[in-house]
Amino acid sequence: IKVGFEDRTILLGNRRLMKKNGIDTQRIENTMKKLETEGKTAMILAVDGDISAIVAVADTIKENSAEAISKLKEIGIETAMLTGDNEITAKAVAKKVGIDRVIANVLPGEKAKVIKDLQSEGKVVAMVGDGINDAPALAQADIGIALGSGSDVAKETGGIVLIKDDLMDVVQAIKLSKLTMRKIKQNLFWALGYNTGAIPIAALGFLNPIIAAAAMSASSLSVVTNAATLKFAKLK
Fold first, then answer.
1. Cα–chain-centroid distance for residue 58?
2. pLDDT band at 124 (very low <50, low <70, confident <90, very high)
3. Euclidean distance between CA atoms 27 and 46, whole angstroms
4. Which end of the chain is more exposed for a tag (fewer CB within 10 A), N or C?
């Protein structure tokens, strides 16, 4: 942020902003790094070219974040943090919750490009976000997951909207998706197997039409029953 007030120039931002305006930050580097290793975002306040203060802020880590990351790893999901914070701060937070990979210093408009780059590596990417600037990345991702407490734009863009602000629901959504795909494959297998075996027999006249109709109904019933067992699936 750069503003003018009563003939004074006030800057509030990161090292890049200070460097762009010719302000040397070397004398406060030790303090900055100490704050950043604690997981805080340190911003520099400068007035008329002189550093006046360091403002440190920190996001509260969501409840169950570490547990959710652990569960995602258990089911073979690689996790990454995509953030506008500097790398030191981002790595400190990632270490607390067990995230594998950190992509830091990402501007809001660059998030979608990062997702696209990950996809170009052959990865299927799911993006979890709640802010307005997350919307393009949610749209670019193969699966966009928006938190229920997030912005309206994020919720409209996400393919999945979690009702609660609980990251464990991300794990449950993925598990439910995997179970659903498994049921679809099972049902296709049994339906295809039944038709492959029964249709030639019926065509050759070896199967009574009434029995064939009953068998077809039984096949449909078995498919529906198999799908209905998802209701009793244990996702936790």
1. 20
2. very high
3. 13
4. C
